[in-house]
Amino acid sequence: MARGLLENEAELSKRQLHLLMQVSTIFNSSLDFYAVIQSVIEETVSVIDAADGGVLFLYDDERKRLKVAGSTGFRKKTVNEVLLQSGESMTGLAFEKKETLHFKTNLEVEEAMKTMTPQNATLYHQSADDLPMSTICIPIIKEDDCTGVIVLDQFNLEKEFTKDDIRLVEAISSQAAIALMNANLYRNKEASLQKLKQFNKTMINQNESLSKSVETHHALSDIGMNEGSFQEICSYLTNSIGKTVMIFDPFGEVKASSNSEWPSTENLQKMILKHLNTIKQKKHEVEVFHAKEDFLLFPLGRLSFPLGYLAIISESLPLTRFEHSAVFHACTVAGLQLMKQEAEHKERQRLTGELIINLLSAQEEEADLSYLADRLQADWNDFFTVAVLDVPQEVEQGHEEWLRSCIHASISHLLQKGDTKLLVTEWGRQIVILFHDAHGVESSIVSVNRFIRDFKALTSSITSEKMCRIGIGKSVKGIRALDQSFSEAKKTIKFLERFTFAGYSSWYGEIGALRLLLNNKEEELANYALEYLSPLLAYEKRRKGELFQTLFVYLSTGQDIKNASEQLHVHVNTMNYRIQRIQEILSINFNDPADLLNIQVACNIYRYLFEA
After folding, report:
1. Exposed end of the chain (fewer CB within 10 Å): N or C?
2. What residues are paired with 296 via a beta bridge?
3. For residues 356 and 482, is the Cβ–Cβ distance under 8 A?
């Protein structure tokens, strides 16, 4: 009988050794980490007759939890979500103690599982129909550290785990530790190889991008060196980055576009004008982005007051590194082109300044005047009109620079857009415009008035702030009479500075007799005006009527009752009644030339002193 027992044990050991070798072969058949994990638990369950299901837990260093890495005999969707702490349930106890634990009965299993968190308990019950009848937990030990736990569950009462099963699973656990370590090393090696491949791919892409970037920079530089057009810059940049490119002047007018059918530029123009106003607040920006409209705007030339803008219009934004580099180089080339144009404009300003100096000089040289007039392409016999633009002195220095830049940019914009002939220069703090026209005085007046109107409209589109006062001298025949128009323009500025706010403009002739008031003190002028008008002002304050306005309109129409009544939208009889009441209140008679003159002067003084 003893001999029979020995033969049975030998046969069992032989079978276990065969199974262990078979499991080891399967473990080493793959270096795929996740394939090895699944094979460990599946082969372990298959060689242990009493095992109906099993789970392999591995310790997650980041979460500090035991995480399901492989399972069989359970519903994977829920069991895979179980995360156990060290010491939690049967698995956590085996991990904590680093020793094999055998829970022999259903009661022992149930008692150990009471330490599970409510969430883990719910997940377990969703993954299995019943609690195990018996469970063995074998830790996976690697270099004295527990890296995981093999858990085998018995659900069938007819079977039970034996000591030989436990020894076999412990042997499998040792093999599993080696297999997992090799698989992990292989996974790390594969990850390193993938990183190296990705690095090589990145380097190749960067080299290609760098080569393309250098080629683009050389091509754009050649366009700049050869004084290529803005259209060439737009076209080349579009070919390089595959996006529509447009170049605008400082006020949103299109100078060039790579797309023959221009997209709507209304929103772009609004953004440009908004940016100019932002710069006034000293908030300089290198790049202006408006994601909703899918475009980018880049200032050209300088940030204090851009000479223009380059726009990128595309649905695929933002730009790549190469595209950014190409766009900024194009901005540099386009900016240099604009700065060159500005330098030419400043040279013309310098020559215009010299021309004025020579004309005002008592010892003017005929040769110098001829040279300057020829350089400026101005006919000596044209009709010349001088306008002086005066920036208010009360503004801050940085803001004054912005105003001056805006004025010069506005003049340049209108000069390129229209057919008005003019020269510009700076005279101290003031900006001087020399209009010249070959068609006579009336044509000169029309041309100057149109330009001043357009200038005010353009600057008001940027800011509601009134930029400057504008004094205009009379139109004179021939360049030698220019000093007369210049003198009148300066006198007009002096008058406007004293009696009006910024934003006013006037011809010298429009001031009329009021120019004589420049020699009187403001207090004396105010007393004169109020001496004649105070009775009417007092009456208006008590009655809240409209007689004061009626008086001004009546005088401005040359005492034309019908015209004045139409402007005020009242009946002629009402107008006659109001005029009669005004005469009674002021004790004057409009038919008396002396009374009429005094009241006209008083009204004009009042308007300039108080209504300005």
Report:
1. N
2. 289, 312
3. yes
Q: Please write the tens of the pLDDT for every residue from 550-591.
A: 888 888 888 888 988 888 889 999 989 988 988 988 899 988
Is the distance from CB of 140 to CB of 147 less than 8 angstroms?
A: yes
Cβ neighbourhood burial of 496 (10 Å; 0-12, 13-18, 19+): buried
319, 327 Cβ separation under 8 angstroms:
yes
Residue 88 C-beta-side C-alpha neighbours within 13 Å: 16
Characterize the bridge pairing of strands 244-248 and 254-257. antiparallel
Q: Can you give the pLDDT at residue 33?
A: 65
CA gap 209, 16 in Å, rounded: 62
* Cα 558 from Cα 564, distance rounded (Å): 9
pTM for the complete prediction?
0.57
**Residue 420 has what DSSP assignment?**
-
Cα-based distances in Å from 148 to 34, 66, 167, 580: 14, 7, 17, 111
d(CA 21, CA 503): 100
Does 12 score more than 60 pLDDT? no
Q: How far apart are CA 527 and CA 606, in angstroms?
A: 10
Q: How many CB atoms lie within 10 A of CB 550?
A: 23
| Percent of the chain predicted with pLDDT > 90 | 21
Tokens of 29: 């058949």
CA atoms within 13 Å, Cβ hemisphere of 440: 2
Residue type, 557: T
Task: Write the pLDDT tens digit of every residue in 148-206.
Answer: 999 999 998 888 898 888 888 888 888 777 777 776 777 788 888 888 888 878 776 76
Nearest to 595 by CA among 571, 568, 559, 546: 559
Q: What would the two tokens of residue 261 be?
A: 């059918």
587 φ, ψ to 5°? 55, 50
How far, CA to CA in Å, does 433 sit from each of 442, 452, 457, 462?
Answer: 18, 11, 18, 21
For residue 205, the tally of other CB atoms under 10 A from its CB is 11
* Angstrom distances, CA of residue 562 to CA of 3, 345, 439, 596: 145, 51, 37, 19
**Which residues have a Cβ under 8 Å from the Cβ of 196 and sit 6 or more positions away?**
none
Q: What's the angle, vertex CA 604, arms to CA 603 and CA 607, rounded to 5?
A: 85
Phi-psi region for residue 270, left (φ > 0), alpha (ψ -120 to 50) or beta?
Answer: alpha
Q: How far apart are CA 349 and CA 342, in angstroms?
A: 10
**Using the 8-state DSSP alphabet, how is residue 512 labeled?**
G
The three-state secondary structure class of 9 is helix
Instruction: Determine contact, residues 514/584, Cβ cutoff 8 Å.
Output: no
What 8-state DSSP symbol labels residue 291? G
pLDDT at 372 over 90: no
Report residue 228's pLDDT band, with 50, 70 and 90 as the boundaries: confident
Contact 510, 530 (CB under 8 A): no
Both tokens assigned to 343: 């330098």
> Is residue 41 helix, strand or coil?
helix
Identify the pLDDT of residue 4.
46
